[in-house]
Amino acid sequence: MNEYVSPETKFRTSQLEDNDGPGHNPTANRTMGEVIAARFSRRGFLKGSLAVSAIAATVSPIALITADNARAASGSVFSFDEVEAGIDDKHHVAAGYDADILLRWGDPIFADAPEFDPANQTPEAQAKQFGYNNDYVGYIPLDGSSEHGLLVVNHEYTNEHLMFPGIVTISEGEIKVSDADQKRVDIEMAAHGGSIVEIRKEGGKWQVVKDGELNRRITATTEMQLSGPVAGHDRVKTNADATGTKVFGTINNCAGGVTPWGTYILAEENFHGYFAGELPADHPEAANYERVGVPDGTYQWANFYDRFDVSKEPNEPNRFGWIVEVDVQDPNSVPKKRTALGRFKHEGAESIVAPDGRVVFYLGDDERFDYVYKFVTAGKFNPDDRAANMDLLDEGTLYVAKFADDGSFEWLPLVHGQGPLTAENGFASQADILIETRRAGDLLEATKMDRPEDIQPNGANGKVYVLLTNNTKRKAEQVDAANPRFESAFGHIIELAEDGGDFAATKGKWEILLKCGDPSVAEVGASFSTATTANGWFGMPDNCAVDSAGRLWVSTDGNGPKATGRTDGLWAVDTEGEARATSKLFFRVPIGAEMCGPLFTPDDQTAFVAVQHPADGGEDWEGFGRPSYYEDLSTRWPDFKDDMPVRPSVVAITKQGGGKIGV
Ligand code: FEO
Ligand code: CA
Ligand code: CA
Ligand code: CA
C-alpha cells in the first residue's frame, strides 16, 4: 500500500505549497493564502448563502450592493441573473438556461464501443470510450455549422481513487491506495489523451453521433511523429526509436486550441509526473530534467513500461512537453508533436491570424516563476487551401515575454546564435533551445510570472488576456509590476495590447485587468469593480474564452471550501468602459471539481464547459467532512446513482427557448 497522494493533489501541492523549485520559500511564515483560509474557516463560510450574507453583513460596502443594483450600475455587456456562489454536490447555471450533460467519462464514442461498466473496466473498453478528466474543449464546425461539428476534448490525467473500485483503504483518516497492476495502468493510459467526437444539435439539444466517421480516441499509446527542428536529434533517440521521430502517446493534455485551419491542438503540461527511476547526477540531461522536475514518479507507469524509467530510457522525457497537432479530418492521421513551439509545461495554444497572414500562437508555461511565450509562423495562413497550412507549425519564431514596470512589454526571440543563445552557453543548435526552452528564457531574463495558464487573443478588440492562476511562493522582494502581489493566493489577469494592434508585433503595452480574490478583504488587494457582487468575485483564473462578440468568460481552478468558500465556476468578466473588471457568476461546478473548457459555438448559442475531477476532495467541506473515494464519494455527479461513480463530464449550456448566451 502506498501513502496515498492523488496525482492532481501532488501536482497542486508541488505548484502551491512545497515545491523546492526556484520559488521555494524556506521560512515557516504563514502565506497570505493561509491567513485568508483561516478567516474563511472562522466565518463558517461553508454554509452557502447564509455565509455569503454573513460576509456581506460583516465587512464589505461592495458586497452590500445587491445583485440587481450592481447590474444596473455596471453598464455590463452581460445580461443574466447571477448564480449564487457556494458549495454543494451539484452544478448550477443561471436561471433560464439548461446545462445538459453531453459526454461523461466512459461514454461509448464508437458504434462498437461497449457500455460503461465501471466495476469491470478494461483498457480495450476505455480506448473506445470518452476519457477521464476532460480539460480543453474545442469545437470544429462541420459545413460551417454551429449545430453540427466535432467536439475535441483533452483528457488531462487520471484520479485512481475516484476511478477504480476496491483499491482504497482509510487509515487514520487518510486515503491509502493499493499498488497498480498492469491492467490498471493500461486503463489509465487509455483514459489519457483526447477525444474527437461528432455532435449534432437536434430540437435544441446536443447529441453525440456515436457512429461519426471522424470520431477518434487519442491516448498515451497513440503513435505520433516528432516534427520540426528537434525531429531526429540525438537527444530524442531511444532504444525503441533510433530515428528520434516516432513517439508513442501524449500525456497530461491540459488546455489546447483549434487552429485557423481546423486542426486540434493538445498541450502537454505536467509530463514530469509520469517518469520515475534515477538518472545519474553527471548525466548530460540532469540539469535539463531538474528544471522541469523529472523524474517525479507520481504515476506507476514505469513499473510496467521501461520508457517511463529514466534509468532505462534517459531520453524519453525529451519526447514530452510539446504541442501536439491532430488533423481531425483524417481519423488515421499521425498526430505531430510540433517542436518549433518549444518544450515546457504547456498550458494551451490559442491562436489568431495577424494582419499579414502569419499565425500567432500564445503559450503559457504553468509553473511558478515561469514564462509567457508566443510563436509566430514563418508562413502565412491560406484560407482557401487547407493542405497548404498543414505544416505551418514547423517553421517560425518562438518568443518569450519580458514585462517592464512602465507598462510596456517586449517579445524576445528564442533564436540560436542571438544574444546568449549560443554554443558557449550549451545551445549547439535551435534544437537545444527548443528542448531546454526554459533555460533559454532564463538567459534572456524573461519575466518570471505567477503561473501562466490560458492566454487568449481577442480578435474583436485586439487585446490578449493572460491568466495567471496564483503564486504563493513569490516573496515581497520578488514583486514586480506585472506580478504585483507577494504570496499571491488568488492570481490575476493581464491584458496585452500588441503594437499597432498587430498580434505578430514584437512589443506592446500591458495593464492589469483584474487582481482576483475577495474584494471585501482588504489584505487580499483584489480589484474587481465595485459593481461586482459577493457572488461575482473569484480566485485562481485558469482558462478563458472570448465569444464571437469579444466578451470574456473566465473559468477557475482552485476555489473551494478553504480557499474561497465557493466552488470553481464560469464567470463573465466585463473588459470595456465603466463596467471593466465587473464579474458575474454564470455556472458553478460540484464539490471537488475544477472548471475547464470553456468554449462558445460560433453563433454564441451554446457554451461547452468541462467539469474536471468532481468529488476529488470533501474533507474540508462540512457537507461531507471526510476523504472522498470510489466507494464513498462527496458527489456522484452527474448520474447520482449508487452503482455509478462520479464522472468528469462535458456540459452543454443553452438558453431555454434559444438565443445567444448572456445576452
Ligand atoms: Fe492543467 Fe495549468 O492547468
Ligand atoms: Ca489549466
Ligand atoms: Ca481558451
Ligand atoms: Ca490549473
TrEMBL record:
Record SUPFAM superfamilies: Calcium-dependent phosphotriesterase (SSF63829)
Pfam families named among the record's database cross-references: PhoX
Positions of the UniProt region annotated as Disordered: 1-29
Name the record gives this protein: dTDP-glucose 4,6-dehydratase
